[in-house]
């Protein structure tokens, strides 16, 4: 039996675990690689959608469903994932789950039907479902609770590097290999990360002695708590739309509305992911700095969400603004929505961190699936031509998305976050 399940940390473990090198080797490298792979899989369709559309003759709604099923299976795994993380620890959960992503990537690579691609994409979503949650759980175990926003931001920035790899670098690679061969390479990369996590992460996690049934019951308590929903609802639509657009619809918007060619589109997506990495680090650093003056993370998160909505409005405004500037602003301020992972994790004790984070993640990813599909359905109301969907189609689809986010901003304003002195506890 693994020591991770039954052993306790020795005094030497307690001393070394607080050193930077230890944290870097056992959290940021293995779990950061896991999140890197997760984001690479999440956003790759924004670039290869042209190949899928051309080879399989898929309409916008099918592309939305195919890409969004990743979010659906990802969401389905969240509740059992949270329970298992709190019961067995991040190492014992994350490494085996990545094997599903390996299998899914292989199926996606060899499939020639829409159903086969959906099954492969679904398995990928299931396999990487624990990437960020495992990392947050590890941070909750080894780091002081007040440093969670900064550590989460650093891990999210590594995920941004995965999104970056799915833009111009992948576009250049696809000049030499097919998208099917690219997914074979992704399968090998995911297997490598699985091995790294298994070998690198320490086995010194001591779970609380409760049954799985008791731990599962605590999830129901979270969902019945108004504090949980209060912390979730103000940013959840913005977060879901941020993921939906970046993982698929940003590419078509750059092609159809901004009139960019494939190479320019890939470069713009690349700079967007650079902004994503910068945004994650910036919002994490700002939050960590301002906490010294009593400014709570919810203030930073909500302010960022408000500016994020402004950039979405610019996407449909028709104003002569550089698409590069819009894409970078969208990606930079969209990362503010991810700060809520740390906010909800801070609201509970460390032994509940896995369940509360995954419970919030479930809500986010179910919405991401629904909204990504919904955007495709709205776009289909204006049939695509040789130049793609008309500008009006994007104005309506993104307009609906903006309307869904406005109530969250109003809810955030009702908190009067600028007056908050402490984080609410569940």
Automatic annotation (TrEMBL):
<dbReference type="GO" id="GO:0005886">
    <property type="term" value="C:plasma membrane"/>
</dbReference>
<feature type="transmembrane region" description="Helical">
    <location>
        <begin position="394"/>
        <end position="413"/>
    </location>
</feature>
<feature type="transmembrane region" description="Helical">
    <location>
        <begin position="222"/>
        <end position="249"/>
    </location>
</feature>
<protein>
    <submittedName>
        <fullName>MFS transporter</fullName>
    </submittedName>
</protein>
<dbReference type="InterPro" id="IPR036259">
    <property type="entry name" value="MFS_trans_sf"/>
</dbReference>
<dbReference type="GO" id="GO:0022857">
    <property type="term" value="F:transmembrane transporter activity"/>
</dbReference>
<dbReference type="InterPro" id="IPR011701">
    <property type="entry name" value="MFS"/>
</dbReference>
<dbReference type="InterPro" id="IPR050189">
    <property type="entry name" value="MFS_Efflux_Transporters"/>
</dbReference>
<feature type="transmembrane region" description="Helical">
    <location>
        <begin position="61"/>
        <end position="83"/>
    </location>
</feature>
<keyword id="KW-1133">Transmembrane helix</keyword>
<feature type="transmembrane region" description="Helical">
    <location>
        <begin position="20"/>
        <end position="41"/>
    </location>
</feature>
<feature type="transmembrane region" description="Helical">
    <location>
        <begin position="324"/>
        <end position="344"/>
    </location>
</feature>
<feature type="domain" description="Major facilitator superfamily (MFS) profile">
    <location>
        <begin position="27"/>
        <end position="420"/>
    </location>
</feature>
<feature type="transmembrane region" description="Helical">
    <location>
        <begin position="182"/>
        <end position="201"/>
    </location>
</feature>
<feature type="transmembrane region" description="Helical">
    <location>
        <begin position="95"/>
        <end position="112"/>
    </location>
</feature>
<feature type="transmembrane region" description="Helical">
    <location>
        <begin position="148"/>
        <end position="170"/>
    </location>
</feature>
<feature type="transmembrane region" description="Helical">
    <location>
        <begin position="269"/>
        <end position="286"/>
    </location>
</feature>
<feature type="transmembrane region" description="Helical">
    <location>
        <begin position="356"/>
        <end position="374"/>
    </location>
</feature>
<feature type="transmembrane region" description="Helical">
    <location>
        <begin position="118"/>
        <end position="136"/>
    </location>
</feature>
<keyword id="KW-1003">Cell membrane</keyword>
<dbReference type="Pfam" id="PF07690">
    <property type="entry name" value="MFS_1"/>
</dbReference>
<keyword id="KW-0812">Transmembrane</keyword>
<keyword id="KW-0472">Membrane</keyword>
<dbReference type="InterPro" id="IPR020846">
    <property type="entry name" value="MFS_dom"/>
</dbReference>
<feature type="transmembrane region" description="Helical">
    <location>
        <begin position="298"/>
        <end position="318"/>
    </location>
</feature>
